[in-house]
Input
Amino acid sequence: MIENRRQVRTDGTGNADILETAAQCFMEQGFSATSIDDVARRLGATKGRIYHYYSSKTDLFFDVHREGLERLFQAVEPVMGIEGSGVVRLRAMLTAHAMAMMTNAAFEAVVVQGVHMHRMAATTPDQRRTLDDLIAIRRRFEGLFKQVLQEGVDDGSIRNIDISISAKAMLGAINWLSVWYRPASDETEMDRQMLAERIVTTQIDGVRS
Amino acid sequence: MIENRRQVRTDGTGNADILETAAQCFMEQGFSATSIDDVARRLGATKGRIYHYYSSKTDLFFDVHREGLERLFQAVEPVMGIEGSGVVRLRAMLTAHAMAMMTNAAFEAVVVQGVHMHRMAATTPDQRRTLDDLIAIRRRFEGLFKQVLQEGVDDGSIRNIDISISAKAMLGAINWLSVWYRPASDETEMDRQMLAERIVTTQIDGVRS
DNA sequence: CAAGTGCATACTACTGAGTATGTTGTTGAC
DNA sequence: GTCAACAACATACTCAGTAGTATGCACTTG
Output
């Protein structure tokens, strides 16, 4: 477990705000186009505050990335163990994933950006390790879906397909939400739920027996 | 028709090289993280050459973007008019799209990046118009799929689904290729064809009657 | 041979990451 | 109750990188 946060505030008003604001900026402008001053300005603060908690812009990005991944796990893992055949559980997982993508749009946009950084020139060895760590976590996340896909094939509820490719395609359809989805101002939880169901239904019907 | 290229070389050795190299750089590092000097260095040249043809980095990016879109149209439009029901034509279009995403990985990665630039602070009014133009072209491209989806619903070969959402999900599954697909060194056209077929089959089975 | 093309070279002006240092509260030891 | 240490920032720098420009120079073309 590598720790890039210098400190974690106990009152939850410092670090969490930085993380949230950074996620917003990274979502809107991307990693490179976002300056630390941008984040600070939006926080109503200065660089000093950010560099007090994070030793570099990259570390800040990685921490947002990690938070985004954690939220995905928290959304998907609980529904993984529900009753039902493989296809039933897969549907619940995909729906939870889609909901998480919309609810935590900023953080998950950073996760998506992170995918492109695999080959990034992470300067320090520490950052390299952190990045590899994040990649491993994302692999584990993808693995959850592959596992349930396989269980579905085994119990006959899912067609005999190439699991690796199907997983990438299905997750792609959902992750693509971070590209085009922007919350409407008057949008309710129900609206998001409807949208998630529709996307997932199409994907599930594509693999169901 | 707004023209951002100052000149187009007739021998096809100047501009095309710049475009290709720029696409590579933009794919690997993204727009902001790519410097004009990066592109020039990779070309074995200097900034002078690039600024001779393009008046700004943004204009260069837009031209790569436009080329990427044109290649998508050239891949998809021809197969749109083949014989067959809606679902048959849709499958052919999606497959052509997937193949184009892999064959022109660099250019299409730029197209995907361009999606995020909708809200970009395009400085000059000229650039604003060019960007709006590109957005319109992309809308038209998405429209092709929606149209055939609708025709499929009408002729009964496709289930009665929400066309707009299904189109986004299906195209998302395919566009996601630009995130994870990297050509293997010993990869053949057949390998790509197989991959495309598998992704598309899952998507088609999700909407077929 | 004059005008323009196709670049390279050599600048400028600015942004932006990271640092060094100051300043104000807070906390715990005695 | 006080004082030293430290947390939580703000301020004021440095310096490398980078977009864009100005200019020079060989080579081609009408």
